[in-house]
Amino acid sequence: MCGIAGVVNFKCHNLEGIKNSLFHRGPNEQNFYTHGRVALVHTRLSIQDIAHGQQPLHYKNFSIVFNGEIYNHLQLRLKYLKNSIFKTQSDTETLLHLYTKYKKQMFDMLDGMFAFAILDKEANNIILARDRVGKKPLYIYKNNSSLVFASELGGIKATVKNLDINEDSICSYLRAGFFFKQYTPYSNVIEVEAGHVYTIEIDSLAFKKERFFNFKEYFLEKRSQTLDESVDELEYLLDKSVRDRLLSSDIEVGAFLSGGIDSGLIVAMASKYQKNLKTFTVKFNGAYDESSLARLVSQKYDTEHHEIEINFNVKNDIEKILLNYGEPFMDSSAVPSYYVSQEAKKHVSVILNGDGADELFGGYRRYVPAANNLLTLASYLRPLLKILPVSHNKKSLYSYFYRLLVMSDKIGLDYYLSSTSDVFEGVYEFNNNYILQQMDEFILSNPELSSLSKMLFHDSEILLFSDLLVKMDIATMSHSLEGRSPFLSKYILEFAPTLPDNQKVRGGKTKVILRELAKKYLPLELISQPKRGFEVPLKKWVDIDLKENIYDRLSLNSYSSSFVDQDFIDKLLNKKIMVSDEKRAKMIWSMYCLEVWNDVQ
Q: How far is it, in rounded angstroms, from Cα 82 to Cα 587?
């Protein structure tokens, strides 16, 4: 796990500054390599082939900097590179040999998470690529004559000063709660999209962008098999994915263990291959406590269990946490994710997690209406909104019913945002722009998918990429901790979309197939538990812990007032907008995150 960067045609490229900006991603070693007008930068967190895995790595006319892990790389050597002579046991060398022999055909072979750059000196181009779902980040800055790429926006800002802000992108962030696809806060900076490879000509800096993985193809490839058959196949694939992520490390691997099914299954599988697995459960003050459920799994599999009680020190830490992202980032669960990673790093440098299970197998309550056509029924009851009081309890059945009524007449982007991030929806209307229009067109462009498959597809392509994986990458790598996600293996990514809808959501039951598999491995107490994320006391932060700071930033001449009317902001701060307490806190929080980011521009 590492940080990577590169510059093309920059006379004052500030390689030291770039290395320093990415140091937390690779504290064990930092190197750079120059060739003509190109410089490559690498910072290393040593996990595989610790003695010989230095980068940049060179072979023939090629040089590579690589961030990530290829879990099946030794198998690929045996199958596809029998005649190659290797100098190391590193996956980086495997990756470079595969590319020199198979070029872009190699992507279908890889099971792993990756963002890499390959300099082809003979062809005079650079290849940039990112894994199927975008586990590992990569950004590109380009003007007429120069180019910079880096694992984080801070790496680009170390070389490029005074980046121009893209106000359409900021506006779309405020409405959606995230940056869509390739867009960033900056006009000349894009994010390399998941499942894509970019070829960049060094002389002209011309781009060629190609896709090597598309979720939609698998959603259209529905299989017909019984639930029992699907459970058996999932068991095999998850076992393989966990084993590969556990054993392809030269240092100890631990696992996050909540009280839920996803992490419980991962711990159950991992315990087959590693005795005394270190597991970590976190308890937060004021949050729902699942530590007793996690303890049942730990006892069943005899793990070396750590219960970590964390008190949020939000007032002192919040701006540091938010600035780690290099862009406005409003997902408040980034805060507990930061603290969890900080504590886990004291014990291990590699951690297994359950990322992706909910988006692939239907784990959220909002999938139930899509699977059961409840919105059509709710549309007949929509007039009740005129007399029903606003719900202030997010978890209540009343709140669920109220949101159904609100969403029942919406389509496209309006529906998607109402059912997911739900920040300003139904309360404040933003001017449309080309990014919001692209989001709307993308969401409306898949009529051949069922309602449930469409939502799962959109979440995998949008929320997972633009929010959830960003959150976990920055939270873990801020502490030089590598997170590995078995549910996002090549095998499960190609398997889960093909399952029938009723093996994911059936009636009111979510994650049907995972619950069935869990019956073989987990205590019964866990299997019927509803989905719970990190319970963040956002309303308390906004109204008590951070109130003074937030109100000072938003009350007068705020940057947010360039996008949201100041009168609306004032009324929101003073609780004069008729809206739920949670939604009010979320709107204020999104603007606060924008203000913190804008302060350092």
A: 57
Sheet holding 147-150, edge to edge: 29-35, 38-44, 2-8, 147-150, 139-142, 189-191
Residue 333's SS3 state is coil
Residues 120, 41, 147, 132: what is their CA dihedral angle, to the nearest 10 degrees? 70
- For helices 547-555 and 581-598, angle between their N-to-C axes, nearest 10 degrees: 70
CB neighbour list of residue 567: distance below 8 Å, 6 or more residues apart: none
Q: Are 255 and 267 in contact (CB under 8 A)?
A: yes
Q: Return the closest-CA partner of residue 73 out of 46, 51, 98.
A: 98
Helix (H) or strand (E) run with residue 578 in it: none
pLDDT value at residue 560: 98
Terminal CA-to-CA distance of the chain, rounded, Å? 28
Which parts of the chain register pLDDT below 50? none
- Cα angle 348, 153, 428; round to 5: 105
Question: How much is the pLDDT for 259?
Answer: 83
Q: What is the pLDDT of residues 114-144, one digit of tens each?
A: 999 999 999 999 999 999 999 999 999 999 8
Cα dihedral: 89, 92, 97, 98 (round 10) = 110
- Phi-psi region for residue 483, left (φ > 0), alpha (ψ -120 to 50) or beta? beta
Residue-wise pLDDT tens digits, 254-277: 999 988 999 999 999 999 999 999
**Residue 49: its pLDDT value, please?**
67
User: How far apart (Å, rounded) are the C-alpha atoms in residues 110 and 91?
Assistant: 11
